Amino acid sequence: MTQQRDSGTTTASATATADTGAPMVAVRDLRRSFGSGERTVHALRGVSFEARRGELTALKGRSGSGKTTLMNLVGGLDTPTGGTVELDGTDLAALDEDARLALRRDRIGFVFQSFGLIPVLTAAENIGVPMRMRKVPARQREERVRTLLALVGLAEHAEQRPGELSGGQQQRVALARALANEPALIIADEPTGQLDSETGRSIMRLLRAVVRSEGVTALVATHDPELMELADRVVELRDGRIVETAG
Q1: The pTM is what?
Q2: d(Cα 198, Cα 138) in Å, to the nearest integer?
């Protein structure tokens, strides 16, 4: 596929490259079924793919294709019926619930279509929430928040609450919050779904730049062909199977 490069991204994003070593995410013959007997629904039917460090992978497919199920499994929010998910060499199925909770807190950042910000907190306070949960010292937490606000272009909006920000600005705060604990993986489920097309492209360009500069792996579900052009790899799902991989 043709990859576009935005001249407005950071210098780090233009110079950093994806790690060519072991994959950050390795999915092998992943299956997930719901129900039993004649009512069984096979959401995933033997899905396999890899995503490497510093790489943005887009998941495409119609509603019901299995995208959300796949992202829930990769993010440790659900367990498979069969197959494996490895994050940086760790088999998620081998972890108990406490270990999966710690992995989601420390190693994975989530970005949602609905932003998911806490209305009564400022942008800076929202970004700091994951670090408070890890009991990061206040001075270290505040420094990280300032760095992330600058990274997403919101240094001047630290004290504003979500209701005082545009949709695009709220999603930038959500992205900064996802990066708070320096995760290995960002999972973004239709992160531009509530934004107009130009704002959506801006958020995807920012996400791609962050992937490069922070050395993070990103798995992004989107249905917008223009946004897919910004990805390093596109994985298409249909009826619970991968039908095409490009990039």
Answers
A1: 0.84
A2: 36
